[in-house]
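Subject: Sanity check before I submit

Could someone independently write out the structure tokens for this chain? I want to compare against mine line by line before I put it in a report. The sequence has 220 residues.
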Amino acid sequence: MRRIFVVLGVAALTVLFILGIATASESYILSEYSGAFQHGGATIVDKNYGWKSAPQNPNVVYIAVWVPKPYRNYIKKALVRVAEKHGLKAVVDMDISGDDLKGRVVLVYIPSIGAGYRVLYTEREVSGILYYSYAGDAKSAVDVINNGTVWSESEIDKTAQRFCHASIVRMNELRIANQTCAVAYWWNLRAKVGKLREESPYEMIADEIASQLDQFLESD
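---
Independent answer below. Compare away.
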């Protein structure tokens, strides 16, 4: 009987060992809730009625990353890489308000971060938005953030829509024809990396956010 218990114990330890190795060797990225939407391109207008184009230089994109460290540098690098891939000159400027309508604008705003520590893996998570404006409408995005936004799983999609709605309203008031605006949002965008992997959860999250910018620029 004792031999049976020993065999069962060894078998159980073997299974746990295999499961542990599998967990420590895996990595993934997922989000509890996410989405993206994009408002059309240039409005067809009669220039005789005062409509104009923006930005001043569409070949430049101003990038602001309002994200806590250490995520900030990873996301900056990933966004710059994507912008340059599309032939754009990337200028990182945290004070994005001063770049209004000068060039295209990308703003990543992440007000919530989280972390999990386990023996076999490391986990990081963020919640927030990526905002892109072809016309370079930085003012609308900053105003939405400064005037209060609701960050919850049930409200994040409505909060995200406010960014483009505010921009469209402003572009119409200024009679600017180029009104392309896009927003992506994530609630608990989570990266999990096993201890046996050499990947960085920060870099995985940054690449996921930058991939959405890549899609916006592809369809712009």
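---
OP: Matches mine. For the report I'm noting this point. The helical segments are 2-25, 71-85, 138-146, 156-174, 201-219.
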